[in-house]
């Protein structure tokens, strides 16, 4: 084996430490769902809609149910869920700024203050008004997760050897689904999802940040950041030795030197510049479409509302079926980690999207015919499990790290920020609109996702390149070949790069 491709202990610690931020992100996604009824009851009690005294009186269950359905409680509950995505949408624009301010490692260390603060707000919510404390904590946690969902793939992508860049990049998604699964299990009523322990359940959202803060000082900074952004060649070389053991770093340093020269010639592209640019339009379009395909596939409709969907499919204990989805989620993300550097990013994404499209059709047939044929409920369940499996094979993990592969150093932070904002925004839209679409279309709701998935499959086949085994420069150059068929186009690109170089927008 090439010494530069070895998986060393330092590299393992660095990737594990970074992925703790992803674990926290996943936990925060899933933790709010299981104790919904318990939290709503506490909201109603704080707002004076239901009291402890009424629990002794007859008919208290009806009064409590009415309190939970009260428009004020519904509003505060909806805000508790949605504010998380809003926080992520806002902070995703700051990923490039935070990552470049003090480096990737110190950037992750800085934002952990937000996670700990959010955990304390939610964990101590009984000390004041629970609805205000929880909503505030979820907003801060969403702001943190918007940053970490960009910083983690950026750091892992820059420290990973080329041969393992896909597998290590997919660990971001693996950590997310493990976090979701952990939140589902400890959110069960007999664990922490009960009347007494739910503040602790929410407060644990900040726990991974404490462990990560202890471990981050042991992690080396990204050698690409050190060399390309700071010009510290010797420090970059030492970091490469720490990450990959003793080996000849000439080829890696040469690749970084060429990329640094390119970065010095090309502008440090900011978000508005990137949106307006025609030079990077193809890469940006592919990056945004891949993130849209992840969220508009319908996967979060399954995650957010799986308990209700399983109940509709006739499952007697839907909460355990939901945990089963979490287990399958985790297992098939591991499959993706094993396959992504062998089968390739494009192939796995195509297989995943096409498989999910077929599953949505079968799911719709099962839900629509279960009243006529009782065994159709099993067809629906199987389709849901396969849907999640296909998602985690490609469309789940790959968009997170492929954005870092599609762009060179200059536009990379801005592209990751835009892709992250696109991801968070579409996540928020699905979370808000799905219940209304479901009420309108009933059991045919997944036909909408089938049509979208078919479109994304065709787009991936026609427009998404294979990035397996290629350097960042080779991938970026591949997009430019199609644009340089004419001399006039090349001269236009040069002029635009010069304009971008003098641009000062952020």
TrEMBL record:
State the superkingdom.
Eukaryota
Q: Which keywords belong to this entry?
A: Membrane, Transmembrane, Transmembrane helix, Transport
Broad class of where this protein is predominantly found: membrane
Localized where? Answer: Membrane
Which GO-annotated molecular functions does the record name? D-glucose transmembrane transporter activity
Q: Which PANTHER family match?
A: SOLUTE CARRIER FAMILY 2 (PTHR23503), SOLUTE CARRIER FAMILY 2, FACILITATED GLUCOSE TRANSPORTER MEMBER 2 (PTHR23503:SF27)
* Protein name according to UniProt: Solute carrier family 2 member 2
